[in-house]
TrEMBL record:
Family in the record: Belongs to the UPF0065 (bug) family.
Provenance organism: Lampropedia aestuarii
Ranges annotated as spanning the membrane: none
Database matches in SUPFAM superfamilies: Periplasmic binding protein-like II
InterPro entries, per the entry: BUG, Bug_dom1
Pfam families: TctC
Keywords of this entry: Signal
Signal peptide: 1-22
Record protein name field: Tripartite tricarboxylate transporter substrate binding protein
Amino acid sequence: MFKPLIACIALATATLCASAVAQDYPSKPITIVVPFSPGGATDIMSRTLAERLNARLGKPVIVENKPGAGTMIASEYVAKAAPDGYTLLLAASSLGIAPALYDKVNYDPIKDFAPISQVASVVHVLSVHPSLPATNTSELIAWIKANPNIANYGSVGAGTSTHLEAELFNTMADTKMEHVPYKGSAPALIDLVGGNINVMFDAYASSKPFINDNKIRLLAVTTAKRSKLLPDVPTLAESGLPGYEAMPWLGLVAPANTPAAIVTQLHQELGEILQEPAVQDKFQSLGLEIIGSSPTEFAAFLQEDMAKWAKVVTESGAKAN
């Protein structure tokens, strides 16, 4: 008789406490954990958001870099943090990719996080060494099939979106390019320029200087539709590989069970920040296209994205190491 009453009292108390926490939020500094090293586009974007959130919320917003293990170190750290809105994760596509690639992942991308907003997509491009007789995707596919023993591609690391973008290409085009993983864009691009690798999928922001100097040849963007940043560059789908689509993304998530009122507040603040002209200009300079989706939309997208890349991993036999 008393157990149900005690349970009800406990539930009511927890609800009231969560409500009180949400009403006082924020009352102390907020930390945004970034799963990459300082200096890259994701880090710069995170610091831009932190600066604007600081100004709007009146409390310090700190960026903490925790790179490593295919972004799993940062993801696990935030998954186990207190669900109070003071520890957030600037998640990347690899949040959902990791469970398909690694034997052991100490978090569940769906169950252990509360989506706040899919902030932006990262414009990725397909480029080749200028010596290749390929000016579009169809010609590249033909060259790879004619040269299976020398065709290869570089990635910014095993298990990254650039790795799986190339494996999706291999699967859909029925080609076989050897994977050459690097530790970041810079060394991979140097080898692409030098002709040590033939092909590379990469963020436009890091490839842009080499494209502008004609040291590598830009063929296509990876998204389903042409990028607003590169309206004259065709997609892979329209230039030789129908149905191809890959959209690397960045988004903000909190630990699961973070009060809904805090999630809503953070989403609303982000939405207004992403409308600021200075922020939009900054994102564009970083090769990012703003999305700003709702928590519900982001949650649905994450499930779809996880299923897509799990299928790519299975069909291609891609390995994380």
